[in-house]
Design a protein that fits this description.
The structure holds three protein chains of three kinds. By secondary structure, chain A is of the alpha+beta class. Chain A is built from eleven helices and eight strands. The chains are: A alpha+beta, B mainly alpha, C alpha/beta. The site of adenosine-5'-triphosphate has 10 residues of chain C, from helix 2.
Chain lengths: ~400, ~375, ~260
């Protein structure tokens, strides 16, 4: 940039001009790209006689779905089928997250155990599970394990109440009779009571230093009040047990094998990653912290609750969030074994029938984006709540 | 002042360490039986392992069938590895013509030799090998695999399959996503709002959706995007999808590396009169990429495992091939053997790579401490 | 192991003794870290321990509040024997304060919360009482204005003073210091030593591992030199510095006093 007359530099050497020009060019290129795609797509769709717009959501779907959380019939619309799929995705993700978290924390703590055998077993678990593709694990559980279960007649049974066979897992189904609402009210009342109790115990401890066994007494309250309410209203709930009638089970609650396979694979796989995260989180709290806490006379339990966990959580929560996101996105692999999730029902069957790829994939992707956003927001909020104590 | 000592210390008292401190007993005591609940845990895990391992060993080795070449050779008392033996060729190469498999093998050999040469400490021309791997090798491999020139017969990509296809998709996916990811990472840190917004939107969009929807897009939506008559190979579209998808993850990995470069490096580069691209290319990126090697490897492991999803859109990768084998009407009922074999295959690759990246990380820690 | 009562009847620890160690041995694997340690610390006495790195100084004082477990011999703290009995360990830990080289403040709590934590959960004080007491000790270590800052926002010297105050909040009868100033910049060492001198003057029983020989000269009742897990030499500071008996002590003193 050696120039004899710097004030006369050409305008494209001006930083601002250049920056604006570059941005304008990129923007133009992007707009051009989209225009190209949109024009082509509309021409192609016309040529193939594919409809456009979201009118199809009102049309009759005409296919059946094997697991429906809300009422659905073949005569219902594509829009209804979409909700069925979305709910099934949310169901498997939510239950998967709960199980993966529990198993993962367990594995992570086991990895840190001073017991050699336990820590080695946990390490082996992690190294095996996380280095094998999830889809393979799903197929393994579904085809090699669940499909290989005995027929209905030879079902495995536990106390003649739970049955497992090739058609799925049969559980007793709760039937709510009149007066069941009383129990719900009692439950609500207990929760309110427990909240007050916790507040009161906290206040009292702050004021007088006396501690109160909140957990035990809450548990007691819960049991006593619920049983009391149930007894007063004459035990208004019965179980509908599955019974073998002819070739099949009648009654009860059938959990389809596809769901069981997804749940197993998703939670065991994700648990391996969560285990690593938990281990790293706890390891991040230095040994000096525990020692200082012991030296002050705090018990191991108090040390864990007041010193180690609050610090470890700050390390654990962000990567844990991304595992939750992964699990939710991975639930879409359900399509491989025909568990009726969003991808299978909507981006699969509905897309095949209507051919409206753009709209359907657009909606599907938007759903996953919103689910991801929702989980991120929730976890960020939680993260801020626990980080608040620091700054 | 009185002495605080009650007695003179006994000098040099040499006692043997107690039994609980050394040898086998010490090890057992500290690692398995230090407290009653530790002992309980030990017993429980021994039971668990006893319940898992011996039956597996019996199934996989002791009662397994190893010899033969037809279904009749399977006694069904344990695993029937004959199944794998029969299908091995297809699991490795898919339906690639048998008499042309040498073309794939040659590519493997070239790849292996070039990668191994990178590990020879005294070898000086590593950057040439690197350049060859990124530019020369893909070209050679393309002509070898596809054929249709140099006297090689044409092989349609629909016949590609097995572990071979998995490697093609995985390697191309990651190699393609690296430059794209770098550009996106730079874009995300750019000072120009339009560039930054576009990069963020692109990255977050792909990271927020599952790969399977991207593959669906590449298989059903992409043909709609193209003008009448223009059509791409199904495999090429799938690879394109994997590249786009993983470039978003790669961008985040690279961004992590860029954030790890101290501000002083940028300032020093600017002070030397380097422009933006020179500064990035000569000073910042080489350092940033070195830091993120472990991150790149773990992204690669993720992509490698995710390539199995292509079976859903009808390509026969390693897992797809093993799925095809077990649904073959002549060979029904060997799913476990097939999955175990495929799992071991994937495991060796993924575990090996994760160990490698851990070793790199450890080496880096040492280098930084110096 | 013999029952508690049996031991107590055999040993009648002197009322004047804060700490009594008899023939204590400790191993890490086959490595003999503490070799036949015999040590009595009288109430209100200040003991300063020095010795080369790796000689077992930290291990010795960590045995006193059971952060490390000894394998042979007996340790009595304030008349209570240290065994596997968790109740006894709790009692001893709440009577023995410890200050670490690396401060070990809890980073997720403010200075005030660091101080109030143990009194609330162990001594079962009300929050108000605990915080009032905490403020008192922060004033004593001269940083009341930092009460609501987090450890990460304090200088090293301030952190160590908070750590000392945190131990004092449990009203310990004995304080253990493990190289409290060796992680500090020179200009901060003095502010921590001043607090320790003031504490010594108030009559606290203290065991201090340090290489600050000036401090040792002012406050120590007894100097101890440790090497390779043994107590090599013990004496009043005057004798210890001017007339060391053992060759290893002489060598050590000549190295460290050079600076
Ligand atoms: N947990 C442990 N496991 C095995 N060896 C240990 C352990 N802790 C300490 N040691 C060893 O015991 C010896 C004494 O350690 P200690 O920390 O007591 O020394 P020190 O005198 O305090 O040294 P420094 O002045 O460096 O702090 C050292 O050789 C050390 O390596
Ligand atoms: Mg030490």
């Amino acid at each position: 940039m050696v120039s004899s007359e710097p004030e006369k530099t050409r305008f494209w050497y001006n930083q601002k001009v250049r920056s604006i020009a570059v941005q304008a060019l990129v923007l133009l290129a992007i707009i051009g790209f989209f225009a190209f795609i949109i024009i082509n797509t509309s021409q192609n769709m016309k040529a193939h006689g594919i409809a456009s717009g979201f009118g199809f959501l009102e049309q009759t779907a005409g296919f059946s779905i094997s697991q429906t959380l809300i009422d659905y019939e073949e005569a219902d619309s594509y829009g209804r089928a979409f909700w069925i799929g979305l709910l099934n995705t949310i169901l498997i993700s939510a239950i998967g997250i709960v199980f993966a978290t529990i198993i993962g924390f367990f594995i992570g703590i086991a990895r840190l155990s001073s017991n050699w055998l336990i820590s080695r077993t946990a390490t082996a678990y992690i190294e095996i599970l996380r280095n094998v593709p999830l889809l393979l694990q799903i197929l393994f559980w579904y085809i090699s394990v669940l499909r290989a279960l005995p027929r209905t007649k030879q079902s495995f049974s536990l106390f003649d109440t739970f049955f497992l066979n090739v058609r799925g897992l049969y559980l007793p189904k709760p039937i709510f009779e009149e007066g069941f609402a009383n129990i719900l009210y009692a439950l609500l009342a207990t929760f309110v009571l427990i909240i007050f109790l916790t507040r009161w115990a906290h206040k009292r401890q702050e004021l007088t230093g006396q501690q109160f066994p909140v957990f035990i007494s809450s548990l007691g309250l819960l049991i006593v009040l619920l049983l009391g309410a149930a007894a007063l209203s004459g035990f208004p709930m019965t179980w509908d047990y599955a019974v073998l009638k002819g070739f099949n089970f009648r009654g009860g609650l059938r959990v389809m094998p596809e769901f069981v396979a997804m749940l197993f694979a998703l939670s065991l796989y994700t648990a391996a990653f969560i285990g690593e995260i938990v281990r790293a989180g706890i390891m991040a709290v230095s040994k000096g912290q525990t020692e200082a806490s012991y030296a002050l006379g705090l018990h191991p339990g108090q040390t864990l609750r007041l010193v180690v966990i609050p610090q470890a959580l700050r390390v654990i929560v962000p990567p844990l969030t991304s595992q939750y996101l992964n699990l939710t996105k991975n639930s879409s692999l359900a399509v491989a074994i025909a568990y009726p999730d969003l991808v299978h029902v909507f981006a699969g069957t509905a897309l095949m029938q209507t051919g409206q790829a753009v709209e359907i994939l657009g909606i599907t992707m938007a759903c996953y984006l919103s689910l991801s956003l929702f989980i991120s927001l929730l976890m960020n909020w939680y993260n801020r709540a626990i980080a608040l104590k620091e700054k | 002042m009185t002495s605080a000592f009650t007695s003179e210390p006994v000098k040099g008292a040499e006692l043997p360490p107690p039994k609980t401190e050394i040898g086998v007993w010490g090890w057992l005591y500290h690692n398995l039986f230090s407290t009653w609940y530790n002992s309980l845990l030990t017993v429980l895990s021994v039971l668990l392992l006893y319940w898992l391992i011996p039956p597996f060993v019996e199934w996989a080795f002791i009662k397994a069938d190893w010899v033969g070449d037809s279904r009749e050779a399977c006694s069904r008392e344990g695993a029937c590895w004959v199944f794998i033996k029969v299908w091995f060729g297809q699991l490795m190469y898919g339906r690639y013509p048998i008499e042309m498999r040498w073309r794939i093998n040659i590519a493997y050999v070239i790849l292996a030799v070039s990668i191994l040469s990178l590990f020879i400490p005294k070898f000086r021309h590593k950057h040439w090998v690197g350049l060859f791997l990124f530019i020369g090798f893909p070209v050679i491999a393309y002509f070898l695999f596809v054929g249709d020139s140099f006297g090689l017969e044409y092989v349609e990509t629909t016949r590609w399959g097995g572990l071979f296809l998995t490697l093609v998709i995985g390697i191309l996916g990651i190699v393609g996503s690296l430059p794209f990811g770098i550009v996106l990472a730079l874009g995300r840190r750019s000072e120009m709002p339009v560039i930054r917004t576009l990069s963020v939107a692109f990255i977050e969009l792909w990271r927020g959706v599952p790969l399977i929807t991207v593959l669906f897009m590449s298989s059903v939506m992409f043909p709609l995007f193209m003008p009448e008559g223009v059509n791409f190979d199904k495999l090429a579209r799938a690879i394109g999808g994997v590249m786009l998808f993983s470039s978003a993850y790669m961008a985040e990995v690279v961004r992590g590396g860029l954030q790890g470069i101290p501000k002083g490096q940028y300032e020093a580069a600017k002070a030397l009169g380097l422009g933006y691209w020179r500064m990035m290319g000569l000073i910042v990126m080489p350092q940033a990429l070195r830091i993120v090697i472990p991150g790149i490897v773990s992204t690669f492991i993720g992509v490698f495992k995710d390539t199995t999803l292509v079976l859903i859109i009808g390509l026969f990768d390693f897992l797809g091939m093993s799925q095809a084998a077990i649904t073959n009407v002549n060979w029904l009922g060997f799913s476990t053997e097939s999955y175990v074999f495929t799992a071991v295959g994937f495991w060796i690759f993924c575990f090996g790579m994760s160990r490698y990246s851990m070793a790199v990380e450890r080496k880096m820690h040492v280098a930084y401490k110096k | 192991m013999a029952t508690q009562s049996a031991i107590k009847t055999i040993y009648q620890p002197n009322d004047e003794n804060a700490i009594l160690m008899e023939n204590v041995h400790k191993w890490f694997g086959s490595f003999h870290v503490l070799k036949d340690i015999n040590l009595t610390v009288r109430k209100q006495h200040k003991i300063v321990i020095c010795g080369p790195s790796g000689s077992g100084k930290s291990t010795l004082i960590r045995c006193i509040n059971r952060l490390e477990e000894h394998q042979q011999g007996k340790i009595f703290v304030d008349g209570i024997e240290l065994t596997n009995n968790l109740k006894q360990i709790d009692r001893i830990r709440s009577e023995v304060g410890m200050v670490f080289q690396q401060f070990n403040l809890f980073p997720h709590l403010t200075a005030l919360e660091n101080l109030a934590l143990a009194p609330i959960w162990v001594r079962k004080l009300s929050k108000a009482e605990a915080e009032e007491q905490a403020m008192k000790y922060l004033e004593r270590v001269q940083i009341p204005e930092q009460a609501h800052k987090y450890p990460g926002q304090l200088s090293g010297g301030q952190q160590q003073r908070v750590a000392i105050a945190r131990s004092l909040c449990m009203n310990p009868k004995i304080m253990l210091f493990d190289e409290p100033t060796s992680a500090l910049d020179p200009e901060m060492i003095k502010e921590v030593l001043d607090v320790m001198v003031e504490l010594a003057e108030s009559g606290m029983t203290m065991i201090v591992v340090t290489h600050e020989m000036g401090f040792a000269r002012t406050v120590a009742d007894q100097m101890i030199f440790m090497d390779e897990g043994e107590l090599i030499e013990q004496n009043t500071p005057h004798e210890f510095f001017n007339n060391p008996q053992n060759d290893r002590t002489k060598l050590f003193l000549s190295q460290i006093l050079q600076h």
